[in-house]
């Protein structure tokens, strides 16, 4: 919690380290302020507040640990409960924007043998 963003970058991957040394965007800095405010609010509130965001490229920092952040995947907001082993990863890695491909059997008319089968 007491580490600076640039100090956190030393313990992360090269892409994350580069992003942290160059500095976060204004949207990401605004999101960090929102995280700090809700962290203070959640200390006194009986029910913790969930933060919604579209920033899939936001890096998980120590300030976010223990919070619930809903990240938009293009269709809906996916709630993410941030844990300490998620540090240095992107929020988008935990809110999948596509479904995994599941192949089933062929439909009627898909193969030559299935054209002779009645539709009943």
Automatic annotation (TrEMBL):
From which domain of life does this come?
Eukaryota
Q: Which SUPFAM superfamilies match?
A: Ribosomal protein S19
**Molecular functions (GO terms):** RNA binding; structural constituent of ribosome
Enumerate the Gene Ontology biological process terms. ribosomal small subunit assembly; translation
Q: Which GO terms describe its cellular component?
A: cytosolic small ribosomal subunit
One Pfam family in the UniProt entry: Ribosomal_S19
Q: List UniProt keywords, sorted A-Z.
A: Ribonucleoprotein, Ribosomal protein
Q: Which family does it belong to?
A: Belongs to the universal ribosomal protein uS19 family.
Q: Which HAMAP family match?
A: Ribosomal_uS19
From the Swiss-Prot or TrEMBL record, give the protein name. Answer: Ribosomal protein S15
């Amino acid at each position: 919690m007491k580490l600076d963003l640039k100090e956190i970058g030393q313990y992360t991957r090269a892409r994350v380290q580069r992003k942290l040394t160059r500095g976060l965007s204004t949207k990401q800095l605004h999101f960090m302020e929102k995280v700090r405010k809700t962290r203070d609010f959640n200390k006194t509130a009986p029910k913790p507040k969930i933060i919604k965001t579209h920033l899939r490229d936001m890096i998980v920092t120590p300030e976010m640990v223990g919070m619930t952040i809903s990240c938009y995947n293009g269709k809906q907001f996916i709630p993410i409960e941030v844990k300490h082993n998620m540090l240095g990863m992107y929020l988008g890695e935990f809110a999948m924007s596509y479904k995994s491909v599941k192949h089933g059997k062929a439909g009627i008319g898909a193969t030559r043998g299935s054209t002779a089968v009645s539709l009943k």
